[in-house]
Amino acid sequence: MEWDRSTQDEFNALIVKIPVFHRRITEEAVTKKAEELAAARKSPCVEKEDVVGAFFLDVPTPFYSMMIRLLDQSGFDYKKYGFPRNGKNNNP
Predict the structure, then answer these.
(1) What are phi and psi of 65, to 5 degrees?
(2) pLDDT (tens digit per residue) in 7-60
(3) Is residue 26 packed enough to be buried (19+ CB in 10 Å), middle (13-18) or exposed (0-12)?
(4) 90 pLDDT higher than 50
(5) Model's pTM, two decimal places?
(6) Phi, psi (rounded to 5 degrees) for 43
(7) 40 CB neighbour count, 10 Å cutoff
(8) How far from chain centre, in Å, is Cα 52?
(9) In the predicted model, is pLDDT for residue 89 greater than 60?
(10) What angle do CA 58, 61, 65 make, to 5 degrees?
(11) What confidence score (pLDDT) does residue 10 get?
(12) CA distance 33 to 23
């Protein structure tokens, strides 16, 4: 699936901030989920809301605070998309 160019650039910038031992699995899991979310919206491309949703839906609870910090540092405005929902990462 295609990605919005600025979303892809920001996602790549975020991924390099993730500790190396988690980077590949995070990139794969978030990419897959973001593309699923975009397809569910019937969007022709992955956008920021899909990436944000993917992080909140797929990141394990022990890494939640690190995810929030990285999203904040990377300019992903998760609050704009209604996250966190009910204060939990796995509760859409």
Answers:
(1) -65, -35
(2) 999 999 999 999 999 899 999 999 999 999 999 999 999 999 999 999 999 888
(3) buried
(4) no
(5) 0.87
(6) -90, 145
(7) 10
(8) 4
(9) no
(10) 105
(11) 94
(12) 15
Q: Are 54 and 16 within 8 A, CB to CB?
A: no
Size (the chain), residues: 92
Query: How many CA within 13 A on the CB side of residue 7?
Result: 17
| Chain position carrying tokens 């909140």 | 56
Confidence (pLDDT) at 43: 98
Q: What would the DSSP string read from start to end of the chain? A: -EE-HHHHHHHHHHHTTS-HHHHHHHHHHHHHHHHHHHHHTT-SEE-HHHHHHHHHHHS-GGGHHHHHHHHHHHT--GGGGT-SBTTBTT--
Tokens 């996250």 identify what position?
A: 83
